[in-house]
Design a protein that fits this description.
Elements lengths: L2 H14 L6 H12 L6 H11 L5 H13 L4 E4 L5 E4 L8 E4 L5 E3 L5 H12 L9 E4 L2 H4 L1
Parallel strand pairs: 3-5
Antiparallel strand pairs: 1-2, 3-4
The structure holds zinc ion (ZN) (2 copies).
């Protein structure tokens, strides 16, 4: 994943929509794109606080909302556990979720789109989105 390219793409999209890109906002988006752990809002906030101590949690929420409205981030809702975000791959893709530590890992299943397309074709259903999670124990929690 070329995170620099991904970040530039997002910044282009947002500024193209007339959004103001403050250094704080850019730092938040950068932190999200750099983090491959599907961070929560709180984790992004903690990360940002180190360089921008005056940042509020509301600013992080607002920036994520902006990314959501532009279709540049994928939100994975986990009920009471809160949401996790993928700023690297904003489109639906399968995830492996650890039931013990809460790790969310991308699954690189190559034929996944083919699988979805086949399901769509057979059902006659017009798919608007999908969510595919596999639950289990991550390698660290298994030991
Ligand atoms: Zn785990
Ligand atoms: Zn993901």
């Amino acid at each position: 994943m070329d995170t620099k390219k991904r970040l530039n793409h997002i910044l282009e999209v947002l500024s193209g929509q007339g959004n103001r890109l403050t250094p704080q906002r850019i730092a938040i988006i950068s932190a999200i794109v750099e983090d491959d752990s599907h961070p929560s809002v709180e984790k992004v906030y903690a990360e940002i606080k180190r360089d921008f101590p005056t940042t509020s949690l509301a600013t992080v929420y607002k920036t994520i909302k902006l990314l959501k409205d532009s279709g540049e981030i994928l939100e994975l809702e986990f009920g009471d556990e809160g949401s996790r975000f993928d700023g690297r791959k904003p489109y639906p893709h399968p995830h492996l979720v650890c039931t013990q530590c809460g790790a969310v890992i991308d699954s690189d299943m190559e034929n996944f789109d083919e699988f979805i397309n086949k399901m769509t074709a057979e059902s006659g259903f017009k798919i608007q989105g999908h969510r595919f999670d596999i639950y289990g124990l991550c390698p660290a929690c298994r030991n």
